Amino acid sequence: MTRTILVTGASKGIGRAIALRLARDGFTIVAHYRQDRAAAEAVMEEIRGGGQAARGLAFDISDRAAARAALEADIAAHGPYWGVVLNAGIARDAAFPALEDADWDAVVETNLGGFYNVLRPVVMPMVSARQGGRIVTLSSVAGLVGNRGQVNYSATKAGIIGATKALAIELAKRNITVNCVAPGIIETQMTEGLPLDEVLKAIPMKRLGQPDEVAGLVAFLCSAEAAYITRQVISVNGGMI
């Protein structure tokens, strides 16, 4: 039986690495993206070049109606997902006194709202399929310990941890595991321009993480070997905490 995994934010960075790794492990990939269709198509072509199936799905995870419509239509056409990786998210950093209302709202509606907007339409079809499954969410070291200039981002990433743990309890008897991966500072477009000398002082391993290192953990959590692991938060951060 072919198992399908939806990966949100699959067009670049960590999401791209996750989609490619899960495809190599034999899953059919639904590569979600918001706007960058060309980058998503490149990921799908790479997956197909390796002999696996992939299709794209475009919507803004902060738009509840759009997310529901796109997901319900895809499930109606292709059947329920066996797994979901909630990777998509944004950051709008500023010191709290300088934080704009729009920056707070955008981050909360995308990162935390996206948890609900994506999972609400897909969980019951997963349950009804009676095939078990995997849900992996992406938090952050900022959600575990907070970070200067990221009150909004830290709040949403901490919220994802709480939501993940609660959902894991609800779905455990359905053999659907729900776990959270909390990356540290990973070398992607989101980390470009950071003061590297200062950043490395906080990392005992003295280097940035790589997207493939996060993808490897996600792949394990989606594997048969991880069937008895649920409600966990696992960090990939070079020893930061």
Question: Can you characterise this structure?
Answer:
The mean pLDDT is 97. The protein has helices spanning 13-24, 37-49, 64-78, 101-129, 141-145, 151-171, 196-201, 211-221, and strands at residues 4-7, 28-33, 54-58, 83-86, 133-138, 176-183, 233-236. The protein is an alpha/beta fold and 241 residues long. The protein has a 7-stranded parallel sheet, with helices on both faces. It is built from 8 helices and 7 strands.
Q: What is the topology?
A:
Layout: E1 4-7, H1 13-24, E2 28-33, H2 37-49, E3 54-58, H3 64-78, E4 83-86, H4 101-129, E5 133-138, H5 141-145, H6 151-171, E6 176-183, H7 196-201, H8 211-221, E7 233-236
Parallel strand pairs: 1-2, 1-4, 2-3, 4-5, 5-6, 6-7
Helix pairs in contact: 1-2, 1-8, 3-4, 4-6
Element-by-element helix/strand order: EHEHEHEHEHHEHHE
Strand order of the largest sheet: 3-2-1-4-5-6-7
Largest sheet: 7 strands, parallel
- Strand segment count: 7
What fraction, in percent, of the residue positions are helical? 40-55%
Q: Which range does the strand content fall in?
A: 15-25%
* Tertiary shape: globular
Low-confidence stretches: none
Average pLDDT, rounded to a whole number, is 97
Separation, N- and C-terminal Cα atoms: 40 Å
Rg, nearest Å: 17 Å
Query: How many helical stretches?
Result: 8
The computed structural class is alpha/beta
